[in-house]
Amino acid sequence: MSQSPPIVLTFAAADPSGGAGLQADILTLSSMGCHALSVVTAVTVQDTVGVEDVLAMDAEWVADQARCVLEDMPVSVFKIGLLGSVEVIAAIAEVVSDYPEVPLVLDPVLSSGRGDELATDEMVAALRELLIPQTTLITPNSLEARRLAIEDGADSDDVPLHECARRILALGCEYVLITGTHENTAQVVNVLYSGEGVVRSDNWKRLAGTYHGSGCTLASAIAATVANGLPISEAVRDAQEYTWQALSSGYRPGMGQHVPDRLFWAREENVEDEKQPD
């Protein structure tokens, strides 16, 4: 019998469009050689245009889903996305606290690509207090980083991103990767910080259009590369490369945003096979 691939447990919401959430996580993790375990935190009504509604799961059901599979299979990495309620955040924080040796990648999903609000101030406070202190790597975009860095609801537009990173690190996580898609720069600049300062800074060609599930893809790709044994700096670099390739190969299946092609490499292989002579 073949040896099991690395196992990653993702906590996220179901997305019926297949562009983000659990569906994006499972596709990404599988594409990068991992076995994905999936705990449903919420059910959403959404398409490629935006999120219409979110129904958070009962917190006990979330905890029971996780504990059931954790008692059955060894997990290499936790990945956390949209959570749905303060109660769900608390339940997950309690579960992962029993596995302090397992790295945790947190994608703080605070709003949709269209700007739909997906996290209340109470949920942000619970993230800061309960989950970020247990996090190995958090992956906010610049808007999310500023919101996480400001406790009192004050205007955060003028806070530099390096200061946001410092404040988030002070909450107890080990690394912060702030992505620059929302910044007014010629290229997308993603910067990885630790308590010692900047670990790495990567520039990427800015692609046209907007993408549904890009943040989910990046965080899951990092979880996969960590599960496959890479140290954080290399894992972040390889995950960015994978994500950029998935975005650049993306397609627009509906009337809204593009969807990353997480299986771009398989389609490229098929094209090459078709070019081979008989």
What does this structure look like?
The chain has about 280 residues and is α/β, with parallel strands linked by helices. It has one domain (about 5-270): Ribokinase (UDP-N-acetylmuramoyl-L-alanine:D-glutamate ligase). It contains 9 helices and 9 strands. It has helices at about 20-30, 60-70, 85-95, 120-130, 140-150, 160-170, 215-225, 230-250, 265-275, and strands at about 5-15, 35-45, 50-55, 75-80, 105, 135-140, 175-180, 185-195, 195-205. Strands 3-2-1-4-5-6-7-8-9 form a 9-stranded mixed beta sheet, sandwiched between helices. α2 runs parallel beside α3, α3 runs parallel beside α4 (about 120-130) and α5 (about 140-150) packs across α6. The longest helix has 17 residues, at about 230-250.
Keywords:
9 strands; nine-stranded mixed beta sheet; UDP-N-acetylmuramoyl-L-alanine:D-glutamate ligase; alpha/beta; globular
Any chance you could write out the topology, listing elements then pairs?
Blueprint: E1 7-14, H1 21-31, E2 35-46, E3 51-56, H2 59-70, E4 77-80, H3 86-97, E5 104-106, H4 121-131, E6 137-138, H5 142-149, H6 161-169, E7 175-178, E8 187-194, E9 197-205, H7 214-227, H8 232-248, H9 264-275
Parallel strand pairs: 1-2, 1-4, 4-5, 5-6, 6-7
Antiparallel strand pairs: 2-3, 7-8, 8-9
Helix pairs in contact: 1-7, 2-3, 3-4, 5-6, 7-8
Bulk shape: globular
CATH homolog superfamily: Ribokinase
Number of strands: 9
The largest sheet has its strands arranged as 3-2-1-4-5-6-7-8-9
If you consult CATH, what is the topology? Answer: UDP-N-acetylmuramoyl-L-alanine:D-glutamate ligase
Order of helices and strands: EHEEHEHEHEHHEEEHHH
- From the alpha carbons, calculate the radius of gyration and give it in angstroms: 18 Å
In the CATH hierarchy, what is the architecture at level 2?
Answer: 3-Layer(aba) Sandwich
Structural class from helices and strands? alpha/beta
Q: What are the segments in which pLDDT stays under 50 over at least 5 consecutive residues?
A: none
Largest sheet: 9 strands, mixed
